[in-house]
Design goal:
The chain has 388 residues and is α/β, with parallel strands linked by helices. The protein is built from 17 helices and 9 strands. The structure holds (3S,4R)-3-hydroxy-2-oxopiperidin-4-yl beta-D-xylopyranoside (XIL). Residues 51-52, 89, 95, 117, 170, 246, 278, 328 line the site of (3S,4R)-3-hydroxy-2-oxopiperidin-4-yl beta-D-xylopyranoside.
Length: 388
């Protein structure tokens, strides 16, 4: 703590002293069963994003029947431990219950099929599969619009006061910068995004509303499309507070700091917040020894943390899980900040260093004997030391 006092005093007069809360996706099952998982989360992170518990398939497994049990348990856990919640995700083309795809056919037959998780398909193939799956049964625009509005309204009201931010629309963009052909776009039309954001704002005027997507960290048609979408929404007065960059990346090709900074600034110039929402860095592709791969992984994480620290509009840095033991990438990818045994990896120090205020960085380099302040202390100091 002694190290933090001068650092804090000096940094308060500079832009370096920023509060960038750090979060992670969590799984309720692991929080329940694994005390090391729970303790590590509580010690290291300021916010959680439910990995699956607030998705449509979890909250509305049958049309009109809401199941809040698991998500409510996560909310109680977050409250008890004074953690914020980034809600995820109200409207998405994947992780949908079957009734949304087959227009209620299975529900009507009384079948209780488990929700299906459609794999991410290449855009062209996804279009075909999606078209076949949905045109067989088909939705009327007004019917699906009311399903979507009812879902958003019910869920956002239910969690109002507990969930401060929502990914209202997840992964709306296709690789070519047009809107992805989800069931929502296909049957409601491109204005499903307007309707979703307006419904969320009406249900909880205090929640911050985000659009979240992947492969938009670096320049390209997809990023251009997302910037155009955001600009257009704002110009038409549609409520939107920020954009999430998922940042699922890999040591074979990850964006460097300036690429990420430039991307963030494009949204900042529109007056939006920007967050890194789902970062992980796969390590399997390069055929070199593990320590080398972990060093490269640390570079990828460090670049993202420094970019987020440098851009005022960046308001949260979230990884998609924290231990390699429990990652959607699979254990073999070693994509997160802590290893299987919950030990800190080089990536952990890189993120911590990326967010260290200027004075703390100077102190670290000028005195090798001093150990760096813990990430938690830095986060806490930032939280109370800045009006950002
Ligand atoms: C993933 C979860 O991690 C998996 O457990 C689940 O089976 C599928 O979804 N982008 C997103 C997240 O926005 O919701 C996805 O999460 C990962 C990709």
């Amino acid at each position: 703590m002694a190290l933090l006092v001068p650092a804090q005093a000096e940094a308060q007069s500079t832009d370096e002293r920023r509060m960038v809360p750090q979060g992670t996706a969590v799984r309720l099952s692991a929080l329940r069963e694994d005390s090391r998982y729970r303790d590590t989360f509580v010690r290291e992170f300021g916010s959680l994003t439910p990995e699956n518990e607030m998705k449509l398939e979890a909250l509305q497994p049958r049309r009109g029947h809401f199941a809040f049990g698991a998500a409510d348990e996560l909310v109680r856990f977050a409250r008890r431990n004074d953690k914020q919640i980034h809600g995820h995700a109200l409207v998405w083309g994947l992780s949908l219950p079957l009734w949304l795809i087959d227009h209620g056919a299975t529900d009507n037959l009384g079948l209780r099929l488990p929700p299906i998780v459609l794999p991410r398909l290449p855009d062209a193939l996804g279009e075909t599969v999606g078209t076949v799956a949905t045109t067989l049964t088909g939705w009327r625009r007004d019917e699906l619009l009311s399903v979507m509005r009812n879902h958003i309204d019910t869920v956002v009201r239910h969690f109002a006061g507990d969930v401060q931010e929502w990914d209202v629309v997840n992964e709306p963009m296709a690789a070519d910068g047009t809107l992805a052909p989800t069931v929502w776009r296909r049957f409601i039309g491109p204005d499903y995004i307007d309707a979703a954001l307006r419904a969320a704002r009406a249900a909880d005027p205090t929640a911050k509303l985000f659009i979240n997507d992947y492969s938009v960290e670096t320049p390209g048609r997809k990023l251009d499309g997302l910037v155009d979408l955001a600009r257009d929404l704002l110009a038409r007065g549609v409520p939107l507070d920020g954009v999430g960059l998922q940042m699922h990346t890999h040591i074979a090709a990850f964006p460097d700091e300036s690429a990420i900074t430039n991307t963030m600034r494009r949204f900042e110039r529109l007056g939006l917040e920007v967050q890194i929402t789902e970062m992980d860095v796969g390590t399997s592709l390069l055929d070199v020894a593990l320590p080398k791969r972990l060093q490269r992984q640390a570079q990828a994480y460090g670049a993202a943390a420094r970019a987020c620290n440098a851009v005022r509009a960046c308001t949260r840095f979230t990884t998609w899980g924290f231990t390699d033991r429990l990652s959607w990438l699979g254990a073999g990818e070693s994509g997160l900040l802590f290893d299987h045994g919950y030990d800190r990896k080089p990536a952990y120090a890189a993120v911590r260093g990326g967010f260290a205020p200027l004075a703390a960085k100077k102190a670290q380099t000028s005195s090798k004997k001093r150990s760096a302040p813990s990430w938690k202390k830095l986060t806490a100091a930032r939280r109370y030391g800045s009006g950002h």
